[in-house]
Amino acid sequence: MQTPVPAATGDTAGHDAAVRQLIASYRAIPRDATVRLAKKTSNLFRARAAANAPGLDVSGLTGVLRVDPVNRTADVAGMCTYEDLVAATLPHGLAPLVVPQLKTITLGGAVTGLGIESTSFRNGLPHESVLEMDILTGAGEVLTVTPDGEHADLFHGFPNSYGTLGYCTRLRIELEPVQPYVALRHLRLHDLDQLQQQMDAIASAGEHEGVRVDYLDGVVFTAAESYLTLGTLTAEPGPVSDYTGRDIYYRSLQQRSTDRLTIHDYLWRWDTDWFWCSRAFGAQNPTIRRFWPKRLLRSSFYWKLIALDHKYDVADRLEARKGRPPRERVVQDVEVPIERTADFLRWFLDTIPIEPLWLCPLRLREVAGATGTEAGRRTWPLYPLHPGRTYVNVGFWSSVPVDPAGPEGATNRKIEEIVTEFDGHKSLYSDSYYTPETFAELYGDSTYQALKRRYDPESRLLDLYAKAVRRK
């Protein structure tokens, strides 16, 4: 870590040129064609129709424009990855308030499509640390939007809009101080009610047994074996573990009760094995892992393997050779109120043959200087969580055999129904099957339609339901 230095400024002239190029590419798209980003990578699991026109040129919108260590802010281009953002902020002893788990998630993507991580019990979601944004709207103009300005409605309606209200070209975000290391405690829990109670207590108090908790998440292996991982920032030097090669992070939870990582390796602890999903590619087999290039132990490479599978139906072909049915992809993150977490986990473990499950508690962030439970938190109408209420994100990423007697997406539909029954929400980065009426009720449709009329009056951009459910 370094002592704060004067604010560093990136290539603002280059950024301005990149914005002009973006606008030019937008104007070049025929008015009857679907507008999409021209980028090769994505962190979406949702299938979509093939593009019918050239995409938006965002190739120049990938950098960190400015890190201001004095005011603890950063100005970042919309397509900048968190990997590059963290690399720019850590030398100043700073990090974004929420750093989503995978390196190639972009800041603009995490804001328009939501993101979460182990600071979310105290810092909320990535869009809650945004101070202002420049957004290219469906009307073809770039607007600077802030929480209280002329376009405050777009500022608050942008999260969970997935590019259907516009695209970020620049964001100014808050940063927070960090230390060189994170000390970890892995608490073993033996039943789901105990897990829920302990998680609720720690998330509320921000400490456990008198020790501050800066990071909090968990893993459920079975109903009788789960872990909460409590991370505490520290400057105390000492040995650290390395989970970027032979050793696998999520297995360490079962093998040791305490651990230490550098802050860099903590932030990216899940990326090396894409949580535990690298096992689907054989990367956790000790014999294979021994020869697997270390530079390819990362989520971006697994994405390439997934793309090949989708293109050539590799997995389903292998299943067919074994006389098995094709498989339904069940790749989802859902939020349920913390008081329903144990009930949801019991239902899931009894119903869906997927394990492990990731847990991450979250609360809407309190706004400095505000008073009262409601006044102290902003609300976000397209993903309406209740202020002052603790939720738990449950992540599960795998597949199950297709039910030949059921409708398309039968398992995903069951999950949607139970999450709604439990007063929860589901992220929209993957397959969804909601009816238009249910979707409108859950995702703030009246606000959304007003925003579409104001900022995309000719409907140049896709409708959210069409994009998230109809996969246009």
**What's the CATH topology name of the domain at 8-177?**
Uridine Diphospho-n-acetylenolpyruvylglucosamine Reductase, domain 3
* Head-to-tail CA distance between termini: 46 Å
Radius of gyration, in angstroms, nearest whole number:
22 Å
Q: What portion of residues is helical? A: 25-40%
CATH A-level architecture of the domain at 8-177: 2-Layer Sandwich
Individual helix count? 16
What is the CATH first-level class name of the domain at 8-177? Alpha Beta
Global shape: globular
Number of strands: 17
Category from helices, strands and their pairing = alpha+beta
Mean pLDDT: 92
Q: Which strand order does the major sheet show?
A: 13-8-12-11-15-16-14-17
- Unreliable stretches covering 5 or more consecutive residues: 1-7, 371-375
* Portion in strands: 15-25%
Main β sheet profile: 8 strands, antiparallel
